[in-house]
Amino acid sequence: MSLPNEFEGNYSLLDVASPVPLFHQLRDLLESWFQQAFTVDDDLPTEKEITEKFGVSRITVRRALDEMISENIVVRPKSRGRLRLRKLPPVQRLNRLRGFFTDDLLAAGMKPSTKTINFSRVVNERVNAELKLSPSAECFCIERLHYAAEQPIAHQISWIPVDLLPELETYDLSQSLMALFDKSLPHPIYKGEQQLLVRNSTIEESQHLGLSVGTAIISVSRVAFMDNNQAAEYFVATMNPKFYQFSMTVYADE
């Protein structure tokens, strides 16, 4: 386990006379070393090994590593004691309708799964307005949690008009709703109108996602339309930003 050439023997990078605390300097040096020399599947050096390589105290090393853990740069797997680099979050592409919660996870080497935690029939005037339904229309309400490697990463509530899919309760709701729509709707889904915002998590959302109350989360709302311009689904999803980063392409105005 060797240091990259630019770090080997160059401990002058740690300046004891600097006003910057030594553990902050070490934290920056460790991040550069870890990113260059290790992968997300490698065990990172122990506190003892880092102490010996950089000639600093165990307390300084521990404070540097604690800071990296708090910044989510490195993680300590539950099954093992050695630190590892955090896997990069999946890039969630906003400009598509399908695979919104699964495809990017699969591409990132993570195992996605979905659990339905509530299924009911409701009359909700605000939801009906989003779906362009009459105020008294009845919708199926499906509340689900999306997981990556058994860790909750997104909480989603979907509303679907009962008249559109009256047999919905007989379907396997752990699967993609968009795939279900492709098979069962009278017209194909062709567009979605959505909004994204960042806000603080509620008590319930925090419990679902394993976060502290008031943590900043990503919230996405979307109405999906069939090619006859009839709304088929309205959903609101809250996501743990630790696992998501969003990517889109923008163009200059013509």
Automatic annotation (TrEMBL):
Keyword Hydrolase carried by entry: no
Superkingdom of origin organism: Bacteria
Cross-referenced PROSITE patterns: HTH_GNTR
Domain HTH gntR-type: start-end pairs: 20-87
GO molecular function: DNA binding; DNA-binding transcription factor activity
Keyword annotations of the record: DNA-binding, Transcription, Transcription regulation
GO BP, sorted A to Z: negative regulation of DNA-templated transcription
Gene3D superfamilies given in the database record: Chorismate lyase-like (3.40.1410.10), Winged helix-like DNA-binding domain superfamily/Winged helix DNA-binding domain (1.10.10.10)
Stored Pfam families: GntR, UTRA
Protein name: HTH gntR-type domain-containing protein
Species assigned in the record: Citrobacter amalonaticus Y19
